[in-house]
Amino acid sequence: MKKYKICLLGSFAVGKTSLVQRFVKGIFSEKYLTTLGVKIDKKMITIDNTEMEFIIWDLAGEDEFITVRDSYLRGTAAYLLVIDGTRNETLETAISLHERMQQENQSLPFVLLINKSDLKEQWTIDATKITELKQSGWNTIETSAKTNKGVAEAFQLLASNLLKN
Amino acid sequence: MSNQTTNELDLLRNLILGTEKNKITVLEKHFNDANTKIEDVSSVLPQAIKLSIHQNEQLADELAPVVEKAVKVSVKRDIRIFADALYPVIGPAIRKSMSETIMQMLQSINQAIEHSFSWKGIKWRFEAWKSGKTFAEIVLKHSLIYRVEQVFLIQKKTGLLLQHTTLNEVVQQDANLVSAMLTAIQDFVRDSFHHSLDDDTFNKTSNHQSNTTEHNLNQISMGDFSIWIEQGPDAVIAVALKGTAPKLLRQELITTLENIHQQYTTEIQEFDGDETNFNQVNEQLKHCLLSQYKSEEKKLSWMTLGAVLGVILGILMWFFLYLYKAQRWENYVNIIKTEPGIVITDITHHNGQTILHGLRDPLAKKPTEIASANKLTQPYTLGNFSFQPFNNEQIIFHLEPYQSLAKTIFLRRIKQQIQPPKDVEVYFNKNILTLSGKAGTDWISTLKKNIHFISNNYQSNLSQLISTIDLSTINTPKTVQLKINKGNVTATGVAPYDWIIKTKVTIQKIPGITHYDDSQLRIDLSSLNAPKNVRLNFNKGILNVSGHAHNNWIKKLSARALSLPGIEKINLKNLVNTDIRLLSKLKQDFETESVYYQRSKTISSNSNVNKDLQRILKKLQLLIQQAQLLSTDLRIIIQGFSDSRGNYSTRYKVSYLRAEHVRQYFIRQGINNSILSSHAMAKKNHATTHSSEQENQLNRRVSFIVHFLPVEKGK
C-alpha cells in the first residue's frame, strides 16, 4: 500500500478542516476554530482494488497576512483547492495557490472543491469563472462538509487522478 | 588502391604484427567463447567475492535480492529441500531465541523482585499508589538513565514515513501521523526561527552530508521525554526517548543514517509511498533502540543487614545459652555428687534423656529437691527473655537404696530413732557421738540402755545429758507455774478444778517427784465473770462471795458456781445486791414525800399540789421500774389527812377526797390502778381544835406508804 501526502489549500474559513473531519472522522461541527499551522490526518482509500493511504495535511488558510509555507507544500503528491461558494474572493486565493503549486510541479493532480453547497442560495461565486476553469481542465466538485455532499467523491476523484498520474 | 598494394601492406603487417595478430585472434576466440569465460570467472570468483566482502558490504547488499529471489523460487519448487537444510539449524535457533526471551523475562522478574522487597521498592510502590501510575512505570522512572522507545525514518521531502520500529511495551501513536507532524514541526521551526536558532532547545547543527550549512531542529524535549532528530540529505532519522541520553546516541544515529543513505539513496529519493522497499532497514533501526539503566550497587540493605545481624545474634545467644545450660548441668551434677547419702556411679544418655545411676540413702535429700534448692528448676532470665531450666522429666535417677555412714545422714538416722527432746542436741565432737542438754530421767535411762546398739560403732558421750523431771505428761495450763526443787514440786496460779484433782494423782507417778504441793493453787473461777467489785474465795467446797453486784449476776451466780466441780455451797452473806439497795432507797425517798393542801381551797385548783404531784410521780415511776427489774410486786397506799377543823365527818371526807385526788392523778398518768389504794386518815388524826395554824397546815396533806408483797412461788 502506497502513502501519499495530500494538501488541502484555500483561503481562511473556507471549510478545509471541516471537510477533513467529515471525510476522516465523519463528523461536523458548526463551531469555527481557525487552524494554526497545519493539522495532519490519515485516511485509507481504495480505488479499483488499489489501497492508498492519504496523509492529509490540512494547512492553515491563506489571507492577506498569512501565506502558506512552501516547506509544507514540499513533496505533495496531490492537493485539494477549497473555496467558499459564498465568498467569491476565495476563488482568487485558490487560483493563486494553484499557480504556486504548478510552479513546483505542473503534473500534480488536484481537484477544486466549491464548499458550502448547503448555502447555495447565498453563493456569490463567479459561475463564469468556474466554467472557464472546468473548460481548461480543472476538476471541480461542489461539496458541503455540513451535509457530507461531495466530500468522499472529492477525495475519490483525487485518488483516481493520482492513480492515473 | 591497387590489389598489389593491398597485398604488400598485408605482407608488411604480417611481418611487423604477425605474432601479435595471432595472439589477438586467440584472445578474441577465447573472449568470445562462453565456456572459456565461465571457466575464467569461476577461477577468480571465490577470491573476488572474498575480497569484496572484506572491502565493503556492497556485494552482500547487491546479492541479497538475488539470494532472496532464489530462496523463494527454491521453496516454491520443493519446500523439503529447504526444510532438510534448515532442520539442524532451526532447533538451536528456536532454543536460542527462547533462551534469550526467558533470560529477558528473568531479568525483568529479578529487577521487579529486587525493587519489590527493598525499602526503595516500598517507597516506589507508595509513589505509584499516590501518582496513580503503575509500579513498572515508577521503577522505570527511577532506574532508567535513558531508553530509546521509537525510531522513525522519514523521507525529508514529503515527511512520509519510510520505516518505523518501536519497543514492544511502548504504547505508540500512528507512526505516519507522527512522522508527518514531526516534519511539519521542523518546517515550522525552520521557517519561523531560522534567523535566531541559537537557544538550548533548537540547536544549530551542521549538515554532515553536505557542505551547505542548514538550520535544523535536532531535539524536542518535554519533561523526561525527548525526540532527537538527525537530518540526512534525503531522509531524517528521529528517535523518541525517555531519560537523558548520552551524546554517543547521536553518533549512533548519524552512523545509521549514513549507512541507510549509502545503501538506499536512490530508493529514498524516488520514494513513491511504498514503504515495503525499506523493510530491511528495520533491522538497522532496531540497533538504535538503545537503553541504559542505573546499575544498582550491591549494597546490603538495612533489612538484609538487620536479618544477618539477627541471625548472628541468635546464634550467639543459642551458643551462650548452650554454655550456660551446660555449666548449670555440671554444677548440678557436682552438687549431687557432694550431697551426703547420694553416690553417683555413672551418667548415661538415652533417647535424649540423662540417666544418673548410683545409690541413695532414704534419709538423703531427693535430687529434685536439690535442684529446687539450687534454683535449677526455676526459669532463668536473660534480659527480657526467659528460658526453661532443666526439664526434670528428661533426667532419670536410677538410685538404689543403701545406708550411708556419712555423719550427716547418721545423725538424721539416730535422731529419727531416739526422738530426742527439744532441749537435747545430738552432734559429733571429734568423731564422738555426743548428746547434751536436759532430758527426762526415763528417756535418759532408755537411751543409755540402747546407745550401744544404735551408735553403729561410733564412740558415744552421754555425760552432758542432764536428767530432768518431765512434767510434759500432765499438760500444765499456762496459768499454772510449777516449781521443781529436788523432787519437790510446788504448783501456784490458777487452774481448773478437774486439772487440780487429776494432777494430784498423776504427778505422784512421774519419776523423780517426791512431794507435790498445790496449796497455793486456786480454782479457776473466771467462767463466773465476776464484776470488779466482787471477790470470790473458794475454800473447802464453799464459795464465798463478797462485795457489790447487780441482781442479774447474783441470780446467775448460783447456777454457774454450783455447776463448777468442787463447789458445794455458796456464801452470799457478804455480797450486797445493788439493785435491792437502790429499790429500798427509792422506797424510802418516795415515802418521805407529801402533798400539802391549803385550807378552803378546792383541791383541783391548788397549784402547789400539782407541782408536788409531778415531782412525786417521777419518783413513783422510778420506784415501780426498779421493782419490776427485781420482779417485785408493790402496793402504794395513798393516805389522805385533814386539819383539826370541822367535825369528823367533814375531816374524813376531806381526807378521802385528797387521797383520791392523788390516786386519780396517778391513774391518769399511767400508773396501774391495781397497785394504788387511797385511805382517809381522819380517824387516826388526833389533832385538836387548839392546834396551831402551822400544825393544821402540816395535817392538810397526802402521804404514801409502800408495801413490797412477798414473792410468789416460782418467781
Main attributes of the structure:
heterodimer, A: 165 residues, alpha/beta, Rossmann fold, six-stranded mixed sheet, 6 strands, B: 715 residues, alpha+beta, Beta-Lactamase, six-stranded antiparallel sheet, four-stranded mixed sheet, 19 helices, elongated
Describe this structure in words.
The complex is a heterodimer of chains A (165) and B (715). Chain A has a single domain (2-164), classed as P-loop containing nucleotide triphosphate hydrolases (Rossmann fold), CATH 3.40.50.300. Chain A is 32% helix and 27% strand. Chain A has helices spanning 16-25, 70-73, 89-104, 127-135, 151-164, and strands at residues 2-10, 38-47, 50-59, 78-84, 110-115, 140-142. Chain A has a 6-stranded mixed beta sheet with strand order 2-3-1-4-5-6, with helices on both faces. With 715 residues, chain B is an alpha+beta fold. Chain B is 47% helix and 23% strand. The longest helix of chain B has 38 residues, at 79-116. The radius of gyration of chain B is 73 Å and the shape is elongated. Chains A and B meet through strand 1, strand 2 and strand 3 of A and helix 7 of B.
Write the layout of secondary structure elements.
The complex is a heterodimer of chains A (165) and B (715).
Chain A: E1 2-10, H1 16-25, E2 38-47, E3 50-59, H2 70-73, E4 78-84, H3 89-104, E5 110-115, H4 127-135, E6 140-142, H5 151-164
Chain B: H1 3-32, H2 34-55, H3 58-77, H4 79-116, H5 119-131, H6 135-143, E1 144-155, E2 161-166, H7 175-193, E3 219-222, E4 225-231, E5 235-243, H8 247-269, H9 281-286, E6 291-293, H10 302-338, E7 342-350, E8 353-360, H11 367-373, E9 380-382, E10 385-387, E11 395-401, H12 407-418, E12 424-429, E13 432-440, H13 441-454, E14 459-468, E15 480-485, E16 488-495, H14 497-506, E17 515-523, E18 534-539, E19 542-549, H15 551-563, E20 569-577, H16 578-591, E21 594-596, H17 607-629, E22 634-640, H18 648-668, E23 676-680, H19 693-699, E24 701-708
Parallel strand pairs in B: 8-11, 13-14, 16-17, 19-20, 22-23
Antiparallel strand pairs in B: 1-2, 1-5, 1-6, 3-4, 4-5, 7-8, 9-10, 12-13, 15-16, 18-19, 21-24, 22-24
Helix pairs in contact in B: 3-4, 5-6, 16-17
